[in-house]
Amino acid sequence: MEELKKFMVLGTGNMGPGIALQFARAGYEVWIWGPDEKYRQEGISHFAENVGDLVREGIMDPGEAAMMGARVKVTTSLEMAAGVQMVVEAIPEELELKQEMYRRLEELCPEDCIIASNTSTLLPAALSEGMQHPERFLVAHFWNPAYLAPLVEVCGSKHTLPGVKDAVMAILRKIGNEPVLMKKEIQGYIGNRIMHAMNREALALIGAGVCSAADIDRVVLGSFGPRFAHLGPMEYLDFSGMDLIRNIQSYLYGDLDHTPGVLPVVEKLVAEGKLGLKSGQGLFDWSKKENRIRENRDKEFIRRRKEVS
Ligand SMILES: NC(=O)c1ccc[n+]([C@@H]2O[C@H](COP(=O)([O-])OP(=O)(O)OC[C@H]3O[C@@H](n4cnc5c(N)ncnc54)[C@H](O)[C@@H]3O)[C@@H](O)[C@H]2O)c1
């Protein structure tokens, strides 16, 4: 850990600059890489926006914000990877593009440099196929926004060295994240699997005419939603008691939705062009509904960051 000084984050979009900010706040030097000048400019403005968010919320003081420029540089030169101890890749979610990037990186970075991908869906075994040293590769899946959400799901392939996983877990804790190390690779990782299992049931209830989308949101926000901001759902199972849970599972689980693939209600919305906020209509009519999604999405993360800052 003492030898760690410099990191590189690839990608100047939604995720890259936010991940870089996490490293920079912990005092490390970071290169943010974008493929050309247009993306370099994007990286500069996204990074400044992220810093601005933290200052506006009172999580970062203006003095610290002023120091960020000295620690973080945005470049189009991948050669800068030669001087870093870890690279986090956050380029588009395309397998071959990422694989090609790791091949280029391996020619440039030191032998002991760790290469991590922020992929949301691709698996580490597939991503590291073709690498000379897949033992230095793993997935570190930051959640969005990376400078506010604490979770990073860490997942290696069967080739990843245990020491590499340990080192990444230690680095992530050092920069203020709360990483979870997965014991094996599985599609969707952990958080998205749980979230989509809930979404499948909710959409099936809407499709079956049991309730509206607004009712689903009311039910969650008026019951287990707020509870799970402070209590883990698995802790809550133990609180309820496994005998009760066993009975519930025996009555209910056979009845829960098991639709394989895309749900009919989603297919219908897409076919009608009702894509959600971006088209003005999805499950809700956004021309009539107040949009506080961005603000509410990050509210609890901000409250928690304020507590520790
Ligand atoms: N957006 C999210 O909420 C989120 C959350 C977790 C993980 N991820 C994952 O993080 C990665 C990046 O996602 P994002 O939302 O920041 O993407 P994005 O499209 O916003 O940004 C991708 C960046 O990659 C670079 N890029 C563009 N074209 C490229 C090319 N041809 N070759 C190399 N680099 C190129 C650019 O700098 C661009 O800004 C993806 O793997 C995604 O699955 C995204």
Brief overview:
The chain is α/β, with parallel strands linked by helices. Helix content is 47%, strand content 12%.
Structure, described:
The structure is a single chain. The protein folds into 2 domains: 6-181, 3-Layer(aba) Sandwich (Rossmann fold); 195-308, N-(1-d-carboxylethyl)-l-norvaline Dehydrogenase, domain 2 (Orthogonal Bundle), CATH 1.10.1040.10. It starts with 5 loop residues before the first strand and ends with a helix. The protein is of the alpha/beta class and 309 residues long. 47% of the residues lie in helices and 12% in strands. It has helices at 16-25, 37-56, 62-71, 95-108, 124-127, 162-174, 191-207, 213-221, 224-227, 233-240, 242-252, 264-271, 293-308; strands spanning 6-10, 29-33, 72-75, 86-89, 114-117, 137-142, 151-156, 178-181. The longest helix is centred in the first third of the chain and has 20 residues, at 37-56. The model has no long low-confidence stretch (mean pLDDT 96). The protein binds nicotinamide-adenine-dinucleotide (NAD). Nicotinamide-adenine-dinucleotide binds next to helix 2 and strand 6.
Strand content: 5-15%
- The gyration radius over C-alpha positions equals 21 Å
H/E element sequence? EHEHHEEHEHEEHEHHHHHHH
Give the strand line-up of the largest sheet: 3-2-1-4-5-6-7-8
Distinct helical segment count: 13
Largest sheet: 8 strands, mixed
Number of DSSP E strands: 8
CATH topology of the largest domain: Rossmann fold
> Which kinds of small molecule does this entry bind, naming each only once?
nicotinamide-adenine-dinucleotide
Regions with little confidence, pLDDT below 50 for 5+ residues:
none
Reported CATH architecture of the largest domain: 3-Layer(aba) Sandwich
Strand pairing plus helix content: what structural class? alpha/beta
